[in-house]
């Protein structure tokens, strides 16, 4: 009892004030009605979901900031923001484009009769190989607007002065779409600070710290983890739940329906081709903002749920809780984030200015999912399996809600005056996709920094990525020899 009370006091020292602020920070969000009910399917696109599905008010005003939540009150000052951001909307990859062509050719080859088939036959296959997963223009806007919203949510951190003095850090994965996302984010900040993107008009010195810094060790840790690569990524049997679901009764039902609609023999189709048709619908919506693409008319909501599960199963086994190494491989990034927080706390305690108040790191869904799993977020009681489609209909692990395009995990470190003890002065909040994300251990949306460190001490102290990722060669050394 007294333990529970202590936890409560330490993790929400200012509950009353927070409550007050949430009333006063009222704003127009939620009043606007989103009329189009089309993209019901659009919430089932998994990792190919638009960011606007999460925050639908952005469809009407992409710069609207959601303040209607319990951000900390005025007695707390933000000291630092450390973020991990997924790239914005992108083109299909080379592999996906190849499958798209195959599916479209099948329709051209067989097809008959219906208007829908005619529409699909006349559909312009405009995706080309060079596009290969690159950022699209909408993806640049995603990042531009995110920069404008985050900087208006934290105006004391995102200042022109800090920007000019190189006190903002921009790290990125080496992938084209991530580097371009970083650049678009930076240009959004320039727009905020100077009214326009500065591009070439500034001096070289200033330019250097406004360039994205590539660091794949941090942002693509999965490529550098041998154990992950061998046991999961390159392992043909690791995805057996995914493969099994592709042959499941649920999937077969979708396949039979599409086969009948398109007049294509069932044995010419498979789950991958059905999935690519569904993704084509997602790309037309995300890239062209086309709500009535013929590809979307192929699917009903039940199909959407099945195809969403197929996507989530893959993310679960390849990036999420499926195998421990998926998330363990991200502990260097996790520690890196905490090093930033630790440095900022130390500087603040010495009454110094925080040298690195804004840290922006750009990567992939594959960067974010393992990190969230490492922290224990979106964990379901039971694993996602090929058999558990209906049992998992209320699952937490729903990649479209967690890692749509432009998804972002933000740690905000605050200094709070009027704290009860000096340890309570430093507090942390997390935002996922600009919504407060409760800490999994307390279900509270704010935590004292020291408590958070204790909560994750096992990861901060006992997770060494080189050890975690070391592959024990079977037959050479046995466990107890080490
Ligand atoms: C990436 O960041 C890590 C952690 O800060 C650092 O040790 C490493 O040297 C960096 N790598 C590159 C290529 O900059
Ligand atoms: C591949 O995955 C299966 C299933 O998880 C596992 O039993 C097997 O040991 C893995 N193979 C390798 C080479 O790690
Ligand atoms: C989508 O937009 C691209 C250019 O941005 C255009 O070339 C293409 O024809 C459009 N596709 C459809 C189906 O409207
Ligand atoms: C801002 O960054 C510059 C360059 O890295 C550094 O010299 C300066 O100390 C930083 N500012 C503060 C207040 O720490
Ligand atoms: C691994 C897992 O959660 N399996 C469950 C799947 O669902 C069936 C019932 O539908 C359970 O019996 C399994 O335990």
From TrEMBL:
What is the similarity comment for this entry? Belongs to the histidine acid phosphatase family. MINPP1 subfamily.
The record's top EC class is hydrolase
> A single GO molecular function, which one?
bisphosphoglycerate 3-phosphatase activity
The record's disulfide annotation reads 76-416, 281-296
Q: Which organism's genome codes for this protein?
A: Pelobates cultripes
Among the Pfam families in the record, one is His_Phos_2
InterPro entries attached to this UniProt entry: His_Pase_clade-2, His_PPase_superfam, Histidine_acid_Pase_euk
Q: Where does this protein chiefly localize?
A: membrane
CDD domains noted in UniProt: HP_HAP_like
Q: Answer yes or no on keyword Glycoprotein.
A: yes
Name by which UniProt lists this protein: Multiple inositol polyphosphate phosphatase 1
Q: Which reaction does it catalyse?
A: 1D-myo-inositol hexakisphosphate + H2O = 1D-myo-inositol 1,2,3,5,6-pentakisphosphate + phosphate; 1D-myo-inositol 1,3,4,5,6-pentakisphosphate + H2O = 1D-myo-inositol 1,4,5,6-tetrakisphosphate + phosphate; 1D-myo-inositol 1,2,5,6-tetrakisphosphate + H2O = 1D-myo-inositol 1,2,6-trisphosphate + phosphate; 1D-myo-inositol 1,2,3-trisphosphate + H2O = 1D-myo-inositol 2,3-bisphosphate + phosphate
Q: Where in the cell is it found?
A: Cell membrane
A GO cellular component entry from the record: plasma membrane
- E.C. number(s) listed in UniProt: 3.1.3.62, 3.1.3.80
